[in-house]
Every structure is written in structure tokens, then in C-alpha cells.
Amino acid sequence: MSLTTSESIQKYIDGSVAKSKTKASTIFFKAIFAGMFIGMGAAGSNVAAHNISNVGVARLVAGCVFPVGLMMVILLGAELFTGDCLAVMAVPGKKTTALDFVRLLLVVFLGNFVGGVVFSWLIILSNQLNYSSGLLGAYTINIAANKVSMNFTTALVSGILCNILVVGAVLMANCSKDIAGKLLVCFFVIMLFVTSGFEHCVANMYYITAGLFAKANPDYVAVATSQLGLSAEKLNNLTVYGFLVKNLIPVTIGNIIGGSFALGLPLYYLNVHKKDN
Predict the structure, then answer these.
(1) Which residues contact 58 (CB under 8 A, 6 or more apart)?
(2) pLDDT tens for residues 202-260?
């Protein structure tokens, strides 16, 4: 047995109400775990794909590994910014306030950021990026440099498309009453988002931070330029400013639009709104 779409949305709204009454510190630490879990999926996907030259195949392989991060978030009760964009559904029915929604997103975003940065530093300390004679480190730099070199519109729209899929996966997993169903939903929908190359702000908290750390290693940079064809222009774009302003801001805005306004609210009004009024 599984829940209907309406029942899944109502269940999520009830959970959002509970979050609004939870201590910010509790939400924050749950968000740190989510940032690390998503980072684990991202790091694993890089390992799986870093030595595959065909872009489509590389993204598909990465897409088969990355979903583990969301699986961990859902089953272990962590707080993920992109998923929590759905909490906006609790606002129209006056279950929570708009201020509660904004406060939740801010606390979760900061927690995810801390988790992503901490995990990326742990990856550096583990020397994992030395795989394939430093090719993994070079690949990490290349991914980060390409992400910060996108224009605002590309990053924004890619963020919108990403979170339509992510919150769709969250709601679909919410429909299932057993673990197997939740895992299958997470796998296939998130695989689609990763294979499509869409932008996820929390994943980028790992991808780009790890790239920034890896850029400090001249051996990785040499491999990135000689073997992966990374241009000097894109490499120069890989800065903290490039991360925060060129990528994280437009992608985050896109994720909010995609999760809250392109899917969350429309699904609420189509399935639950009349029952709340």
C-alpha cells in the first residue's frame, strides 16, 4: 500500500508544522548531516565517473551513485535545503507562516553549507583525490571550474529543473510506506537529475568547495590543464567569489523557484487546497 499524492502532500505539511516548532539548533545539526550525506554521494559519483571520457556515460554512471546521498537524508531524518523548499505548502493553509518557511530555509541552508565544506575538507585529508595519479583531483577541479563559469541564466534555469525533480522524488518517497519503495524512487528520479547535468546548490557546496581545495595542489592543476583541457580562463573563474556569486546564488534561487513555486505550490493547490478551506 502507498499514500495518494494528496495524502503524501498532507503528510509533508504536517511534518513542516512540526519543524516550525523544533529548535533551530536541532534543525541546524540535522542539516549539517544532510550536507555531508549529499557530499558523500557527490564524492562517490566523482570517483565512479572521473576516468570515463564519454560525457553521457560518465553522467549516467555518476547518476547511479549520487542518489545514495538523498537516500541517507530521507531514511536518517536529515534536513536538506532543496527538499525543504516544499515546506512552502504549509503556508497557504495557514499551518505555518511565511516567516517560519524563510527561517527554516535559512537555518537548513547554513547547516548544509557547513556539512558540505567539512566533508570536502575531509576528502582532501583522506587523499582520495590522488586516485588515478591525481586524475580524480583534476576532474574535481574541472567540474568546479565549469560550474562557476556558467552564466546566470543557465545556472538559474538548471537549478529550477533540478529541484522540480528533487522535490518530486521527496514527495514520491513520502508516498511509499516501505524502505524499498523509498529507495527506488530516490534512485531513478535523482539519477535523472544527475544524468541531465542540472544544478543542485547543496551538491555544489561539495563539488565546488572540493574543487577550490584541489586547486591549491599544483599537480592536480597540471593534470586538469594537460589531460582534461581545462582553460586558464575557467581555472581563473574558480574562486570563492565565483563559487558564491556566480554559481551558488543563481542555483539556490533556481532551486527555490523549482521546488517551491514550480512544483510545491501547484501540487498543493491541485490536491489539498480545497480541503484546507
Answers:
(1) 49, 52
(2) 999 999 999 999 999 999 999 999 999 999 999 999 999 999 999 999 999 999 999 99
What's the sign of the alpha-carbon dihedral 156, 158, 163, 168? positive
Kindly write down the DSSP assignment for every residue of 185-222, as one continuous string.
HHHHHHHHHHHHT---HHHHHHHHHHHHHHHT-HHHHH
231: left (phi over 0), alpha (psi -120 to 50) or beta: beta
The tens digit of pLDDT for each residue in 40-51 reads 999 999 999 999
d(CA 257, CA 42): 23
- Closest alpha carbon to 2 in 149, 185, 165: 185
Q: Which helix (H) or strand (E) holds 258?
A: none
Place of cell 543542485: 200
How many CB atoms are closer than 10 A to CB 143?
Answer: 23
Distance CA 209, CA 22 (A): 30
The angle at the Cα of 200, spanning 223 to 235, to the nearest 5 degrees, equals 25
> How far, in Å, CA of 219 to CA of 22, rounded?
47
Q: Which residues of 80-115 are buried (b: 16+ CB within 10 A; e: fewer)?
A: bbbbbbbbbbbbbbebbeeebbebbbebbbbbbbbb
- In DSSP terms, which residues pair with 2 in a beta bridge? 176
Give the whole-angstrom CA distance, residue 249 versus residue 231.
24
pLDDT digit string, tens, across residues 81-114: 999 999 999 999 999 999 999 999 999 999 999 9
Structure letter (DSSP) for residue 75? H
DSSP state of 92: T
